[in-house]
Amino acid sequence: MNFLNLLFILISSLIS
Hints:
It is a single chain. With 16 residues, the protein is an all-alpha fold.
């Protein structure tokens, strides 16, 4: 798991 990956998922969830 990459840090960028986690960040991307987190941001995506917030945007959704």
